[in-house]
Automatic annotation (TrEMBL):
Subcellular location as annotated: Cell membrane
Upper taxonomic lineage: Bacteria, Bacillati, Actinomycetota, Actinomycetes, Micrococcales
GO molecular function: transmembrane transporter activity
Name listed for the protein in its UniProt record: Amino acid transporter
The species this protein was found in: Kocuria dechangensis
Pfam families: AA_permease_2 (PF13520)
Matches recorded under PANTHER family: AMINO ACID TRANSPORTER-RELATED, MEMBRANE PROTEIN
Topology of this chain in the membrane: Multi-pass membrane protein
Record's GO cellular component terms: plasma membrane
InterPro entries registered for this protein in UniProt: AA/rel_permease1, APC_superfamily
Recorded superkingdom: Bacteria
Keywords per UniProt: Cell membrane, Membrane, Transmembrane, Transmembrane helix
Amino acid sequence: MNATDIQAPAQRDTDKGLSKGSVGLLGSVVIGVSCIAPAYTLSAALGPTAAEVGTRLPAIFLVGFLPMLLVAVGYRQLNRAMPDSGTTFTWVSKAFGPWLGWMGGWGLLAATILVLSNLAGVAVDFLYLALAQITGNDAIAELAASVPVNVGTCLAFVAAAAWISYRGMETTKVVQYVLVAFQLLVLLWFSAAAFGHVAAGTAYEGLTVRAEWFNPFGVESFSAFAAGVSLSVFIYWGWDVVLTINEETRGAATTPGRSAIATILVIVTLYMTIALAVLSYSGVSDQGYGMGNEEIQENIFAALAGPVMGPFAILMSIAVLSSSAASLQSTFVSPARTMLAMGYYGALPGKYARVTPRFQSPGYATIAAAVIASGFYAVMRVVSENVLWDTITTLGMMVCFYYGVTALACVWYFRREAFRGVGSFLTKFLAPLLGGILLLVFFVQTSYDSMDPEYGSGSAIGGVGLVFVLGVGILLLGVVMMLLQYRRNPSFFRERFETTELPVLD
């Protein structure tokens, strides 16, 4: 397909040539959990979040869960009306028009590109840590600090993940079953071992779980609260991948929505268990194994696996490695299908809409995502030694933006039927409205706070915090790319965006 194959949006249906019915409810939930990557995510986010909110860590995780659940309700309703792999791009375009829809799609693409580079970076760290533990040679772990070695290994991970994703959902599903089961087993083992140390009096801090830990109003300031929530939003991010594979899921109009809710509930249960275990074991001091210690914040599990799990610590290194590698692969699903949809409807050049005949996957878009993620990581690794922390915080901003816009799209799209009953009011109006407003408030607050050079890792460009430069710069780049695409194919932006809709199921 090329640019001349693009028809006017009003003339298109949603059959893009993807493999229909290749994923069921269980497979969808497994892919959702894999994309969230609990082992990798918590290792990277526990420290920065605890640094912002201290012992209120469980409260912030619960607060971060609430807008995710509210937004997921809105996503479910939109998917029932329009099961389309473009998700945010398609739905926001339908509700608010092609300009805001394009930027919503850009926000999703930016978030996934950020996390792809971050996932690859974490995989590199834990690869060399695992090799050092296996061989007993600590010098091997230091290889991750070498920029050429780090970037080269990262590119190899990205290439391998892209290759699996290129081969379609069947290959993706098989790989994910094994890797997800392993990381969940190790995380539960780690939590049980940490609680065991606390009970035996051998934990580093040995704190007793307290009710005040669950009180979000105990956070010192709204800025710290918003920063903590933005980081906790990062740890839940990825569940919407189950919506982007809706055209490849059995029961396209209903199964993805159920999978999204189920994925979030599984994850919040797991996160609360692990957060309480680590907080009880380590505390939040800035010394030793305390989560406030800057020397261990970027990789909490790397520091705690030994004292908590003893000789089995290597399993945690392998779990985080497999988690980041699995998520790296499953995360390719989302940007590839978003770019596929944008190419299909004319919002990107037609080559992005190419589907491989053999694997029925978005081949060109998958390769494009791999190239962009690799280039971004290579540049960021040179610019900032604290690339992981800064991209995590920036990712939180991007997620708040595109989730918030999508939730409000649900409110506007269903505005004429939202008041026909209590169920419609709650699921098509109130839940997505509250979720969307909360996330957009957090986006604005975090954007403002991140201008401070001390925000995040403390890296800055021209006296402005690197997190702000990344976040706002990425959005401005989206505007530029949108205007360039407008010049290339103005018909998408000028005509009313339409898709073939399925009836809404009550």
